[in-house]
Specification:
Outer membrane efflux proteins (OEP), four-stranded antiparallel β-sheet, 467 residues, alpha+beta, 67% helix
């Protein structure tokens, strides 16, 4: 009886050591996120944390959002991200449960007959669980750390999506303004052609060409309006805002940097810092630890020890113990061990595949980044200035009455196409830069391509101010 009491006390002492952490393991998630996107992730578990987040969201919405503001707002206000953070609490609960002994089983039996009453009492403890508790805790701790990396991976991925959506929304708004000017100019040209036909100074065929330009400009304006709405709504969803009018955006995209980024040892950096690579490694380690535990319990999977006493009418109470042991007569644990080994091999191959994919994605992302930078610089330094000089020369020729108004408008159409192409190239560069940074430190870029939109629309008769 004394030995049993000592065993029970030891079990209770070991079980009492398992408890929840004050931060729920989220400080590590926040640190991993800050290292990769410059903004910490925010968990809202208490009313105080929620109130602080709401105050910061209100403050951010009082001024036009920058790309960094959009990232911070998404990390604070995206409810889908907060829901994913719930997995971290589940993983910590599993860890705490692994450090606690399974509740004891109490049995009670009563038999009566012939004036005799017999009572049996048993109290059973899971001794195997107690012996394997340290190994089980190590396994669950590894899974908890993996859940921390997974939560950070979700946060970093959302930050990248928010940046892409911000660049897309700002560019769509800027292109919409140009399309509005295009339509206005095309309307004026069409009206002028109509009046000249009525005066007999213009051919009907030329007038129909101008009318066609106006019709095309109207169609493109409708598409540009919808595209601007769609991009803004996509950004609003990522920011967790139910009303897309709650935020404002700047008029233009950020300027192109003076020089492109030249990352050193990009592939090794990705292998060291990418969260999906880190998750694959930790998953393999956790599976390996689980395999060790499975092998340790291969022959004995159930071992319970308990206190038992028995009392009978007219007899003294009998005390003793009871031991329950599963005998490996039919199942020798080979199936469980084979399954664990297969899971380990699967995790090992997945980790290798993730590493190969990470190296390839970094190379591809950097190629897209340099291509986008070169294109944006080409538009900025060559195409737009050249079109501007041509426009100025044609204006001088028009003032000297060497060309007519419709030739001037045709030149303006080409100028507008160049400006629109410049805006799209600048947007594509910033999207490619976001993808490169995510490929280096976060995971697989979620953008379908570095150039998801057409480069430039067909020119439509117009004259607009270039940036």
């Amino acid at each position: 009886m004394r030995r049993f009491t000592i065993v029970a006390a030891a079990a209770l002492t070991l079980s009492g050591c398992a408890s929840f952490s004050p931060d729920g393991g989220f400080d590590e998630v926040s640190a991993l996120t800050r290292e990769r996107v410059g903004q910490p992730a925010a968990l809202q578990r208490t009313p105080g944390q929620s109130e602080t987040a709401r105050e910061r969201v209100t403050e951010l919405l009082t001024q036009p959002l920058t790309a960094e503001d959009a990232v911070e707002l998404a990390l604070l206000n995206n409810r889908a991200l907060q829901a994913r953070f719930g997995e971290l609490g589940i993983a910590e609960a599993d860890l705490v449960r692994a450090g606690r002994l399974r509740n004891p089983l109490f049995g009670f039996g009563r038999l009566e007959g012939g004036g005799v009453v017999e009572i049996d009492r048993t109290l059973m403890f899971d001794i195997l669980g107690l012996l394997t508790m340290p190994a089980a805790v190590r396994v669950e701790r590894q899974r908890f750390e993996q859940a921390q990396v997974q939560a950070a991976h979700e946060a970093v991925g959302l930050a990248a999506q928010a940046r892409r959506a911000w660049f897309g929304a700002v560019a769509a708004r800027e292109l919409l303004r140009y399309q509005e000017q295009v339509r206005e100019a095309a309307d004026a040209a069409s009206e002028l052609a109509r009046r000249m036909v009525e005066a007999g100074n213009f051919s009907p065929l030329a007038q129909m060409r101008e009318q066609t330009f106006y019709a095309d400009a109207t169609a493109r304006l409708a598409r540009a309006r919808h595209h601007a709405v769609a991009e803004r709504e996509r950004l609003a969803r990522l920011l967790g805002l139910s009303d897309e009018r709650a935020f404002s955006l700047p008029e233009r995209l950020p300027s192109l940097p003076d020089a492109p980024t030249e990352p050193r040892d990009a592939e090794q950096t990705a292998l060291d810092r990418r969260l999906d690579v880190l998750m694959a490694r930790r998953a393999t380690e956790a599976t390996a630890r689980s395999l060790g535990l499975t092998r340790a319990t291969r022959w004995v999977n159930v071992l319970e020890l308990g206190y038992q006493n028995k009392s009978e009418t007219g007899a003294s109470r009998q005390n003793g113990y009871e031991l329950e042991l599963e005998l490996p007569l039919f199942d020798f644990g080979s199936a469980r061990t084979a399954r664990a080994e297969a899971l380990y091999l699967q995790a090992l191959n997945r980790a290798a595949a993730v590493a190969v994919q990470a190296r390839s994605e970094v190379r591809e992302s950097y190629s897209a980044y340099r291509t986008a930078y070169d294109l944006a610089r080409h538009y900025r330094d060559e195409v737009v200035p050249l079109r501007k000089r041509i426009s100025e020369e044609n204006l001088l020729r028009y003032n000297g009455m060497l060309i007519g108004v419709f030739e001037l408008l045709a030149d303006a159409r080409e100028q507008v196409a160049s400006v629109s192409g410049s805006v799209e190239a600048l947007r594509d560069f910033w999207v490619a830069e976001t993808d490169l940074q995510h490929a280096l430190a976060g995971g697989s870029p979620v953008a379908a391509a570095a150039f998801p939109w057409p480069i430039a629309a067909e020119p439509v008769a117009a004259r607009v101010d270039h940036p």
